[in-house]
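#struct-help
A.M.: can someone run this one for me? Single chain, 223 residues.
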Amino acid sequence: MKVDSINQRKLINNNYAKPSFGNVVVNNIPKNLLKNKNNIYIISGPSGVGKDTILNAFNEKFNNFFTKVVTSTTRQPRVGEIDGISYNFLTADEFQKGIKNNEFLEYVNVFADKYYGTRLSDVEKVLQEGKNPILVIDVDGAQKIKSKLKNVIAIFIKPKSMDTLKAHLEKRGSETAETMKTRLQRAAYEVDAGLDPKRYDAVIQNNSNIEENVNDLKQILNL
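D.P.: on it. Structure tokens below:
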């Protein structure tokens, strides 16, 4: 997939795409699954696409419908981060022990001993509280979890275009030319994965209108 051809794809003509509304590209979530009270939700999308912005706006409008599952990591806490809220801060030994004991639904070793992952116990904790757990993770982590658990609803946030995504990343002011190239290459990979119906149950295109995107998510979830 060429980086600049994201909008060239005629998704609605794919055999897995269904007539939809607004900015919803794909919605293949069975309504009977939405009635389940023990669903686990996943939201993915390239860096800079607006995942957290949409999720936070949705929770503000719908009385904190989702509860984010706290990610575990071995990196050191940054200023203002709180253990158990920002992340579960573990030592490398603790994390590796968790891997050996199959405590993680998914994990990744980003660099050296910098691990990030999702523990099953943290997901179960949210479910036991009667809340809707949501994982904000990448496409590879999402695939691992969907292969292990039932009642998983995975939603992908697709950028309107690569140019739009690049503009959002540039606004951060933290990208070099090299890191920008790497992020856009990764984004192209993630969009291809996000449009795979075996990986994701629904796809929303972020058109930079938060109100519309919140409404798209609302309709997908049949609220």
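A.M.: thanks! The beta strands are 24-27, 40-44, 66-68, 72-73, 88-89, 104-111, 114-119, 132-136, 152-159, 202-206.
D.P.: also worth noting: Residues 1-21 have pLDDT under 50 and may be disordered.
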